[in-house]
Write a structure and sequence with these properties.
The protein has 513 residues and is mainly α. It is 75% helix and 2% strand. It has 23 helices and four strands.
């Protein structure tokens, strides 16, 4: 959404920037989102790449996302951890930091759009995609810790920037550096634009909308700039403290915002309790017999998988950056923790949104489906979600504005960290370099509230999914390493050595190797 501003020169800057970026964005998007066609259905090849990875990794690791859930819970609780473990943040904070980068507008607006595009049946395929994504997150986050570097000051650099060069050694040093460099540039572009500008813009737009729109106190000239400066100041207060500050903030913010949002979903479901059986029936029936939906079974399946992939970022490598900062001596332990991400983001939060929309049955849902059937494109997903809640909570648009603001803020601070690690890979690690990056990031936070730069954001979205091609190629090449780590960890857990190690370390004044 473009923020109206009475100063014509701001609009001129935005239009000029979009005009310059449009050709590059169109070409770039065409390459990255190259379509695969099955009958009358067309979908991006990158989505097929992500789905295939989920299936292959799940099978290779013996469906770890199902048989390892108990282990995941034990690790998140800190059962096998020690205060002497190397790293920056505990398992729970690493999880919430990564979750804050994925739980966001995709869970609200994206699910609404999926319901219009694929009907209730898309929910089933979203859940399946989330379950497959759990295995992908397990793999990439295990590698993120396995090959990380712990610096003398205790800070950590990990994730794809460390394991991709190892994976690509077979290609030679130069090709490996080029591929990892492309990954870093892509993460940096998205971090500054998509993970920053877009989130800032949507936060202002939602707050402006619920405070009276053009007639409210955020509708006047200069309001966007003032809001942007305040937002950037809040972001600065968190990110200037580094990963420990980010982890401490998200460990409180993510559970709180997820609780508020899921509670609202449950309220809608409870009020419409008698509709629940029919809703589940519509979801199952729609998944396998989607009569009337464009593309039939395959079309609905693709919609579900695509929305899940875009929401939980499994396979993109971004989350492995946050998870690599965890305090642990066993890399695979964080792989088990990372499995909770798609479970919470897609299987729980996205599903709760979908159920609320289907059960509420607001007129806008059918209107959105009719709009898609007529070939007029997908409706604004956030409207469908908002209307569903408004059927029982007339004041919900205000709650949604708060939820969007919290989601966006948490995404902002997490992507600032992802971008920083990409910046360090490209330009070196120093205090001066870090300060320069953070100033640039905060400047674009302000810019994002005033201007949209649509084509820049389109370019950034495409850049992010380049990461999927490069990251998953590296993960495939290191799958044997992951499997060895997993087997050794589970054997130590079974023998009791994991628990004994944590107790022994905590009983000493200094960490042992």
């Amino acid at each position: 959404m473009t923020v109206t501003d009475e100063a014509g020169w701001l609009a001129s800057i935005e239009e000029t920037t979009d005009a310059v970026f449009r050709p590059a964005a169109e070409v770039f998007s065409t390459i990255v989102f190259f379509p695969i066609t099955i009958g009358e259905i067309s979908f991006p090849a990158v989505v097929a790449w992500l789905i295939a990875a989920g299936i292959i990794i799940s099978i290779y690791l013996g469906l770890v996302q199902f048989r390892g859930l108990k282990v995941s819970y034990e690790v998140v609780r800190g059962r096998y951890s020690s205060k002497h473990d190397p790293g920056e943040v505990p398992h729970f904070q690493a999880l919430t930091s990564a979750l804050s980068g994925t739980v966001g507008l995709g869970n609200i607006a994206g699910v609404g759009a999926a319901m219009a595009l694929g009907g209730p049946g898309a929910t089933f395929w979203m859940i399946l995609a989330g379950l497959l994504g759990m295995a992908t997150k397990f793999a990439e986050c295990t590698l993120g810790v396995k090959y990380r570097q712990v610096h003398e000051d205790g800070t950590v650099t990990g994730g794809p920037f460390k394991y991709l060069p190892v994976a690509f050694q077979k290609f030679g040093t130069v090709p490996g550096k080029i591929l990892t460099g492309i990954f870093a540039v892509s993460i940096l572009i998205f971090g500054i634009a998509g993970g920053n500008m877009f989130q800032a813009n949507q936060t202002f737009a939602q707050m402006r909308n619920v405070t009276g729109g053009d007639e409210g106190f955020l509708g006047g000239a200069g309001a966007a700039l003032i809001f942007g400066v305040i937002l950037a100041s809040l972001v600065a207060a968190v990110i200037l403290g580094g990963m420990k500050s980010i982890g401490a903030t998200t460990s409180k913010l993510v559970p709180a915002m997820a609780f508020i949002y899921v509670l609202a979903c449950l309220f809608v479901i409870f009020v419409n309790l008698g509709q629940v059986p029919a809703a589940f029936s519509a979801i199952i029936t729609g998944a396998f017999n989607p009569s009337g939906m464009a593309g039939g079974l395959v079309g609905v399946m693709i919609v579900g998988f695509q929305r899940a992939a875009f929401s939980n970022e499994a396979g993109l490598g971004s989350a492995a950056i946050a998870h690599s900062t965890v305090k642990t001596r066993r890399p695979v332990s964080e792989g088990f923790v990372a499995m909770f991400e798609p479970l919470v983001d897609t299987v729980i939060i996205c599903t709760m949104t979908a159920l609320a929309i289907v059960i509420a049955g607001a007129p806008s849902l059918q209107a959105g489906i009719d709009q898609v059937q007529a070939g007029d494109g997908a409706p604004d997903g956030v409207i469908l979600t908002s209307d569903a809640f408004a059927t029982v909570l007339p004041w919900f648009p205000l709650v949604l504005a708060v939820a969007v603001s919290l989601f966006a803020f948490s995404t902002l601070i997490t992507w600032s960290y992802y971008g920083l690690k990409a910046w360090e890979y490209l330009f070196g690690r120093s205090k001066a370099s870090e300060v320069i990056y953070k100033c640039v990031f905060l400047f674009f936070t302000v810019v994002g509230t005033v201007l949209t730069f649509t084509q820049v954001l389109n370019f950034a979205d495409a850049a992010l999914f380049i990461c999927a091609f490069i990251n998953l190629l590296g993960v495939y090449m290191l799958l044997p390493v992951i499997k060895r780590e997993m087997k050794a960890y589970l054997a130590e857990r079974k023998s009791g050595d994991l628990h004994k190690l944590g107790v022994e370390l905590d009983d000493t004044s200094a960490p042992r190797g």
